[in-house]
Design a protein that fits this description.
- By secondary structure, the chain is an alpha/beta fold.
- It has helices at about 10-25, 30-40, 40-65, 80-85, 100-105, 120-135, 150-160; strands at about 1-5, 25-30, 70, 90-95, 140.
- It has a single domain, classed as P-loop containing nucleotide triphosphate hydrolases (Rossmann fold).
- It is built from seven helices and five strands, in the order βαβααβαβααβα.
- It has a five-stranded parallel beta sheet, sandwiched between helices.
- It is globular.
- The chain starts with a strand and ends with a helix.
- This is Shikimate kinase.
- It comes from Halobacillus campisalis.
- Its cofactor is Mg(2+).
Length: about 160
C-alpha cells in the first residue's frame, strides 16, 4: 500500500490515478469512497455531522484498507494519532506543494469545507499540518511546477517500484 498525503489541492487524487496506471496497483480516493459509503458529499457530512464525524469515517476507512493499492488521502487525515499509526504501517509519500501553489489551485474551489475566503486562516491551517506531513513521510516529493505524470515517475523512481 502506498499512501499519498498532503494538503488539499496538492494533487493527491490526480497523482494516485497516474501512479496506479504506472505500476499496476489499484487506487482509492478516500474522500470519494467516504462519499460513496455515506451517500452524501463531504460538504454535506461536515454540515450535517461536523468535522469530528468525518474524521471518524476516515479512520474507519483506513482500518479497512489492505493490498496493493495507491491511497489518495484527505488533507486532514494526518490530524488523528490513530490515523498516523495506520498510515505509517505502509509507504507514505508526501506531495509537498507550497502555500502559493495551493492557494492558486484552490482559488475558485467551493467544494472544500475547510478552504475559505480567509487567506490567513487557510495559511495557518497549512502551516500547522506541514510538519506532520513531513514527519510521517517515507518520501517527500515537491510538486510545485510539475505535472502529475512527472510526479508519478519520480515516485516510481525514488521508491524503486
Amino acid at each position: 500500500m502506498i499512501f499519498l498525503i498532503g494538503y488539499m489541492g496538492s494533487g493527491k487524487s490526480t497523482v494516485a490515478k497516474q501512479l496506479s496506471e504506472s505500476i499496476g496497483f489499484g487506487y482509492i480516493e478516500m474522500d470519494g469512497e467516504i462519499e460513496k459509503r455515506e451517500g452524501r458529499s463531504i460538504p454535506q457530512i461536515f454540515e450535517e455531522d461536523g468535522e469530528k464525524k468525518f474524521r471518524q469515517l476516515e479512520t474507519s476507512l483506513l482500518q479497512s484498507l489492505s493490498g496493493q493499492i495507491i491511497v489518495s488521502t484527505g488533507g486532514g487525515v494526518i490530524l488523528s494519532e490513530e490515523n498516523q499509526k495506520l498510515l505509517t504501517r505502509s509507504t507514505v509519500v508526501f506531495l509537498d506543494a507550497s502555500f502559493e501553489t495551493i492557494n492558486k489551485r484552490l482559488a475558485d474551489d467551493e467544494d472544500r469545507p475547510l478552504w475559505g475566503a480567509n487567506i490567513e486562516e487557510n495559511k495557518r491551517r497549512y502551516e500547522t499540518r506541514l510538519p506532520i506531513y513531513k514527519e510521517l513521510a517515507t518520501l517527500v516529493v515537491s510538486v510545485d511546477d510539475k505535472n502529475p505524470s512527472t510526479i508519478a515517475d519520480e515516485i516510481v523512481s525514488r521508491l524503486k517500484l
